[in-house]
From TrEMBL:
Similarity section: In the N-terminal section; belongs to the CRISPR-associated nuclease Cas3-HD family.
Keywords, comma-separated and alphabetical: Antiviral defense, ATP-binding, Helicase, Hydrolase, Metal-binding, Nuclease, Nucleotide-binding
Domain HD Cas3-type: 15-209
Segments traversing the membrane: none
Cross-referenced Pfam families: Cas3-like_C_2, Cas3_C, Cas3_HD
InterPro entries on file: Cas3-like_dom (IPR054712), Cas3_C (IPR041372), CRISPR-assoc_Cas3_HD (IPR006483), CRISPR-assoc_Cas3_HD_sf (IPR038257), DEAD_box_RNA_helicases (IPR050547), Helicase_C-like (IPR001650), Helicase_Cas3_CRISPR-ass_core (IPR006474), P-loop_NTPase (IPR027417)
Protein name (Swiss-Prot/TrEMBL): CRISPR-associated helicase Cas3
SMART domains in the record: HELICc
Length: 938
């Protein structure tokens, strides 16, 4: 008989009652998994799982197998686990508690115990007959992976940990109860690894949903006498739990283009082509497809992608989309646009999350939104000769570190998606989250070789799952797009040898669609492509100004040249200019010079010279980004004169229009991105009128990009740029610009040719006629590129069809977790808080001394509002800036050391003298947070 004294949940529940019985929790999870199959999984996911189980056309059987995986997920708790909680173990029956001494000597994870014991249990149920041993083994791997990490089947545990015959009988009894509640499902003949990964994601999600503290406390008080009634109650409760977590699906009320996106006028030719021509290109697709959009900056690629989602999601049975971008700033901007588009289509109740490391600091989230339900997923915290398992309880539901991608609609940084193909905990949950929706990658050109390999690996898995993918770019080299498309097709089942003989050239501007099943390519019609080219044609004037960095250049000194170029803006007619610098230090120096010359008022005082870069505290950066986009945006009001000095933060997804763009020399693809902020809305304003009736100044006779080039004329690349850009790409860009005929670039006609000239395959380097420095730069560039690709290849999980055992997804030495692997090479950073130390010893968050540095309670707790107040004043800096610092001098307050976010901060204690913050020496340099300049490093 089944012994309900075996407990499943204890911590966090009512201590005056018996713990929550294990069988009840197992049935809860099984019921939730069935509900997730019915309403949360997309039709595409159900098809992929059924196919992986060899049950095509039998979705009911596949559903039951997934329910069985969830129902058996905690079978390993019938082990020495029962003695890790004194409160739980004191309720055990005499027959089971008699083994306490022998079973608790060594501590092992109950996930590994489940992996080791579930095959025997399944055999006892008659589930694992001779022909289904492989399926039973895979199911055991899923059970062993329900805490987010897959283990090897040969990972042993002490036999004593599983207990004697009485414990074995209870494992069989618990499993039989679940098995019978699910209608005694038949074993599948196969269980492919890719399907098992999705099943694991369902198990993890089901476990988390039914492990919410409030729900468990309620069920603990109201246990039904009969297990069958308990299971019915669990099934009845499942919809409410899913909706309460923000994961219920919403069907949008599709509106016309202008109404859906709030755009005046008709869709442009590119967008009309997607609406009219893409449906026939997709046809009756069965295995997803990959859709590439190539168009100049400002051509409405974001709306094009959302229109493509309408077509692709209907064809392939996905629901919602993940819109991924390169940076947190671009993600924040896109989140607002997507939220507006959803609300216009009656999607206010749809789950929309912002997905990046600091997303919860965004003003879109109110403090009360962050006080989400605690989830109790692990009880084991102990030591022994076996593995020690840490407390993995999620602290915030849906807003937490891994769950935002589960929402029906998600906007965030690409890093959050790339974690799905790195060997970190819960990568299966990320793959589940991504495989149910259309996958959209904006600014696909913006990723280095390391990230391109990771993106390709993710596309391989999405191809295996038949997920429709949309890639957007204005400047993507053909070699990169071809490689990404082939990775997707390889995941969809196409042979590598056959793909090596194919190429997939994309029209520019336009779109290319490649079907995952047939590999057939279709593209925008020639008529629509020509129409788009005409509609967005622009002759961009390009002026190369030789400059000298430093103060010894005379008239050619960089700052003197910029000052000369901007003189017309300071005169009566005014105008707008964007100056893009390659480093924060250059931007700060440039801003100071221009502020002195054109407007002595600071940015905060409303001066006409503004500064924007990444080294401002989060709240200041958010406010400045908003000010800049409002001043140079499409709707205005447009200022009489405005000079914006910025870094690369304005290259991507910020909707800016300047009368002239002045830029430091950068790789050509990025120069074109920067030039996309010049006369960006001219065609729109020509049709609908300029904001406030203020047109272009007379001196701005046409769009113009001025490139400040230190190489032309025999100069060298500034040393500080070497940390940002390849010297080879800069030199090649300099030569390419010098060869532009007539000093103009025809957009869009010349774009792809120029991109290929600099960023295309450079294997044809002319070894017969190179200069010494040129050869050295090319060798360094290619060596770095190869090293990055190799590193990504070593870290990434195998391709979807190459996985043998699920442990392949975590097959790295040690216990790698998210902070031990990176989606970006060279991205090691720390978050710094600049605090102020006053003469009376007070430490405050502001130089005025009005807001004391908050202190946490002894257990590390602090109100969310105070945590937000601290974190919004932090900024990311390079970790090596602080490597020589005295760790005690930059350590956070002792009361913060138990807080999951505050504990990792570094605090810069700036003395306040005469009302001003003084610099602090760190590692041979001084750091100081200036209200107007941001963090200054000298």
């Amino acid at each position: 008989m089944l012994d309900e004294s075996v407990w499943g949940k204890s911590r966090g529940l009512d201590p005056g009652l018996a713990p929550y019985p294990l069988i009840r929790h197992m049935l809860d999870a099984a019921a939730m998994a069935l509900h997730l199959w019915d309403v949360f999984l997309s039709e595409n996911q159900r098809v992929r799982i059924a196919d992986g189980l060899g049950l095509v056309g039998e979705p009911g059987r596949a559903r039951a197998v997934v329910g069985l995986c969830a129902g058996l997920h905690d079978i390993g708790k019938l082990s020495g686990f029962q003695f890790c909680s004194w409160h739980g173990s004191q309720y055990l029956s005499a027959e089971l508690s008699g083994d306490r001494a022998g079973m608790s000597a060594e501590r092992f994870g109950h996930d590994v115990a489940g992996l080791q014991s579930v095959r025997e249990v399944l055999a006892g149920l008659g589930f694992a007959a001779d022909g289904e041993l492989r399926a039973a083994q895979r199911l055991a791997e899923v059970v062993g992976g329900h805490h987010g990490r897959f283990h090897r089947a040969e990972d042993g545990i002490a036999a004593s940990f599983l207990g004697g015959a009485a414990w074995a009988r209870q494992r069989s009894a618990h499993a039989a109860a679940v098995y019978e509640a699910l209608g005694a499902p038949e074993a599948p003949g196969v269980f492919k690894a890719s399907a098992a990964v999705l099943a694991t994601g369902v198990v993890i999600l089901a476990d988390w949903l039914v492990s919410q503290e409030d729900y468990l406390r309620k069920r603990q008080r109201e246990l039904e006498p009969v297990l069958a009634d308990h299971f019915k109650r669990s099934q009845k409760d499942a919809p409410g739990l899913l909706a309460g977590a923000g994961l219920a699906r919403v069907r949008l009320q599709r509106k016309g283009f202008a109404q859906a996106y709030g755009i005046q006028g008709e869709p442009n030719p590119l967008q009309r082509s997607v609406m009219e021509e893409l449906p026939s290109a997709v046809g009756e697709g069965r295995c997803g497809g990959i859709f590439l959009v190539t168009a100049a900056p400002g051509d409405g690629k974001s709306e094009t992608a959302l229109e493509a989602d309408r077509v692709l999601s209907e064809a392939f049975g996905t629901q919602g989309y993940a819109f991924l971008l390169p940076t947190t700033a671009t993600s924040d901007q896109m989140h607002g646009r997507v939220a507006t588009a959803l609300s216009r289509q009656e999607g206010e109740d749809a789950g929309l999350t912002l997905v990046h490391s600091m997303a919860w600091l965004n003003s879109a989230y109110a403090d009360e939104d962050l006080e989400a339900q605690s989830v109790l997923t692990c009880e084991e915290v102990g030591e022994g000769s076996g593995r020690m398992e840490t407390d993995l309880r999620p602290q915030r539901w849906l807003r937490g570190s891994k769950r935002p991608l589960l929402a029906q609609f998600a906007v965030g940084t690409i890093d959050q998606a790339l974690m799905a193909v790195l060997p970190v905990r819960h990568n299966a949950l990320r793959l589940l989250a991504l495989s149910c929706k259309t996958f959209i990658v904006d600014e696909a050109h913006a990723y280095d070789p390391y990230m391109q390999v990771l993106l390709g690996r993710l596309l391989n898995w999405l191809g295996a799952y038949g997920v429709p993918v949309v890639l957007l770019s204005a400047t993507l080299p053909a070699s990169v797009s071809d490689r990404l498309i082939k990775e997707y097709l390889q995941g969809a089942g196409h042979k590598t040898r056959a793909l090596s003989k194919q190429t997939f050239p994309a029209p520019y501007p336009g779109w290319l669609y490649v079907d995952g099943d047939s590999g057939r390519a279709a593209q925008i019609s020639s008529a629509r492509r020509r129409e788009q080219a005409r509609a967005r044609s622009m002759e961009l004037g390009v002026v190369v100004e030789p400059v000298v960095h430093g103060s010894d250049g005379g008239a050619r000194a960089r700052l003197a040249v910029i000052e000369r170029l901007l003189k017309p803006v300071s005169e009566a007619e005014g105008g707008t200019a964007l100056v893009v610098c390659n480093t924060v230090g250059d931007a700060q120096d440039t801003y100071l010079r221009l502020r002195e010359r054109f407007d002595e008022r600071s940015h905060a005082q409303g001066g006409s010279v503004q500064l924007l870069h990444a080294r401002f505290p989060g709240d200041v950066r958010e406010a400045r980004t908003r000010e800049v986009t409002q001043g140079l945006g499409r709707t205005g009001p447009r200022p009489l004169r405005r000079i914006v000095v910025a870094t690369q933060v304005v290259e991507q997804s910020l909707d800016l229009d300047a009368d002239i763009v002045i830029s430091d020399l950068a790789p050509l693809s990025l120069l074109l991105q920067r030039a996309g902020r010049c006369w960006r809305h001219e065609n729109y304003w020509a049709r609908h009128g300029y904001p406030g009736g203020r047109g272009r100044p007379a001196w701005a006779s046409g769009p113009q990009l001025v490139v400040l080039d230190p190489i032309t004329g025999g100069g060298a690349v500034p040393r500080q740029w070497g940390e940002v850009y390849s010297e080879h790409l800069l030199a090649t860009t300099s030569r390419t610009l010098a060869g532009i005929q007539g000093g103009t670039i025809s957009i869009p006609d010349d774009v792809q040719h120029l991109v290929e000239a600099v960023h295309g395959n450079s294997e044809d380097f002319d070894w017969n006629n190179p200069g010494g420095s040129e050869t050295k730069a090319w060798t360094a560039h290619k060596g770095k590129e190869m090293a990055e690709r190799s590193m990504a290849g070593l870290l990434a999980v195998p391709r979807a069809r190459s996985v043998s055992t699920l442990h392949d997804l975590h097959n790295l030495p040690g216990e790698e977790d998210e902070w031990e692997v990176s989606t970006r090479l060279g991205a090691d950073s720390v978050r710094v808080l600049c605090a102020y130390v006053h003469n009376d010893g007070r430490v405050t968050l502001d130089v005025e001394g009005e807001h004391l540095l908050p202190q946490a309670t002894p257990d590390g707790k602090m109100p969310v509002s105070l945590v937000r107040e601290v974190m919004r004043r932090t900024m990311a800096v390079r970790a090596d800036w602080l490597k020589e610092a005295d760790l005690d001098s930059i350590a956070p307050p002792k009361s913060w050391t138990q807080h999951p976010m505050l504990a990792d901060l570094r605090v810069l204690h700036q003395p306040v003298q005469g009302g001003s913050a003084q610099p602090v020496k760190v590692g041979g340099k001084t750091l100081r947070l200036d209200k107007d300049l941001g963090l200054v490093r000298k």
